[in-house]
Design a protein that fits this description.
By secondary structure, this protein is an alpha/beta fold. The protein has one domain (2-178): Maf protein (Alpha-Beta Complex), CATH 3.90.950.10. Helix content is 35%, strand content 28%. Strands 2-1-3-4-5-6-7 form a 7-stranded mixed beta sheet. Helix 1 (11-23) links the parallel strand 1 and strand 2 (26-31). Helix 1 (11-23) packs across helix 6. Bound molecules: inosinic acid (IMP).
């Protein structure tokens, strides 16, 4: 099976990408390792910094991924600072801060290293609601897309429309041509 590595400490992301990779006849090897996450204003900067670090430590072909929740009323905050917001105020804090029904989007940037760096992007628009559902991870229970939160969806359902799956499809189409 043609394979590539995914360097992440988030098993939820691995499950999502594994399902997507199988659709393309590709296999993901999960490398459960961390790398320094730059505090920067864009996902792209975070990913490029991570790629530079990982390039010295891991053989190609590998990917890393950075994602975030961008809330319109907060001019895109927390965006690249989503991890910090998730750890500090959590889902209930986000709902309390901006209120139910407010528009938001998830964005994902996948960075790959083979001979050089390549970046792939995806996004999905939805709205913030009170926590519903028990699947997924992170902000999934408070992100609603067409009447259901991401935490109310199966991996396959989330994968049909999520920010990460859109970025993954672009990466997998490209990866299929080189491995
Ligand atoms: P990171 O990409 O791992 O740095 O994620 C940033 C923050 O956004 C973390 O708190 C994640 O749990 C959250 N996050 C990223 N992607 C998703 C998603 O698909 N669903 C829910 N939360 C997410």
């Amino acid at each position: 099976m043609r394979a590539f590595s995914f360097i992440t400490q988030n098993p939820g992301k691995v499950a999502e990408l594994q399902a997507k990779a199988h659709e393309f006849g590709l296999e993901i090897v999960h490398v459960n390792a961390s790398y320094p996450e730059l505090q920067a204003d864009t996902l792209e900067e975070v990913v490029r910094h991570g790629l530079s670090y990982c390039k010295e430590k891991f053989p190609p072909l590998f990917i890393i991924e950075d994602s975030g929740l961008f809330i319109d009323d907060l001019h895109g905050f927390p965006g690249p600072y989503s991890s910090y917001v998730n750890k500090t105020i959590g889902n209930s804090g986000v709902v309390k801060l901006i209120g139910e029904g407010r528009p938001a989007r998830f964005e994902s940037a996948i960075g790959s290293y083979c001979r050089d760096f390549k970046l792939f992007h995806g996004r999905v628009e939805g709205r913030i609601v009170s926590s519903r559902g028990h699947r997924g991870f992170g902000f999934d229970p408070i992100f609603e897309y067409e009447g259901r939160t991401f935490a109310e969806m199966t991996v396959a359902e989330k994968n049909a429309l999520s920010h990460r799956s859109k970025a993954a499809e672009l990466f997998l189409e490209w990866a299929s041509t080189i491995i």
